[in-house]
Amino acid sequence: MIRKHLVAGLTLATLALAVWGCADAGPTDPASAVAAPSFDVSSGNPDLVICKTKTSASVSKSIGSKGGMLTLNGHTLVIPPKALSSQVTITLSQMKGINSQVDLQPEGLQFAVPASLTLDYSDCTIPPSAAFVAYLNPNGAIEALPSIDIPSILKVTAPLAHFSQYAVAW
Question: Among 25, 48, 63, 67, which one has the highest count of C-beta atoms within 10 angstroms of its own C-beta?
Fold first, then answer.
């Protein structure tokens, strides 16, 4: 079972990196990065998906220029080679609650090559019609990231230029 999830996560991460890895890296400042929303903006603001995160959990790993991967509660963070120039202790956390929100530390860490975050929404009570990864801006806004939703495995993947808080939205 763990191997199945690992293979699915790696497949999603590879797909995301292939799609976004060849693109222009663009701005690395989170404030200047512009993400095209993957929802119809005329329909109103996006909502976070309601899920049942049963326990709080956290995992940390030292990752450097060779890249690496962290997994937690079905979520996968992939940092590709050359995204970081030095070793950094990366932490992926999820608090018990009502959504698939994750916190990535150190806050604001930026990448030379985008990382990819795959969020699992299999514990959600109402499956979203078109899920995407959302950046939870400290000002309270929910900002859509360009995402690939794979409803057949209840996961959604997006490239990340920096660390902060993210969640599944629709």
Answer: 63
Q: Under 8 Å CB-to-CB from 157, ≥6 apart: which residues?
A: 12, 13, 15, 16, 116, 117, 118, 119, 133, 147, 148, 150
Q: Is the peptide bond before 106 cis (omega within 30 degrees of 0)?
A: yes
* Nearest CA-CA partner of 132 in 161, 157, 97: 157
Counting the structural domains of the chain, the total is 1
Q: What is the pLDDT, as a whole number, of residue 42?
A: 36
Domain with residue 33: its CATH number is 2.60.220.30
**pLDDT value at residue 51:** 87
CA 89 to chain centre: 17
Q: So what's the pLDDT on residue 39?
A: 41
pLDDT at 128: 63
Token reading at 49: 């998906």
Which residue has tokens 């956290």? 58
Q: Which structural domain range is residue 124 located in?
A: 2-169
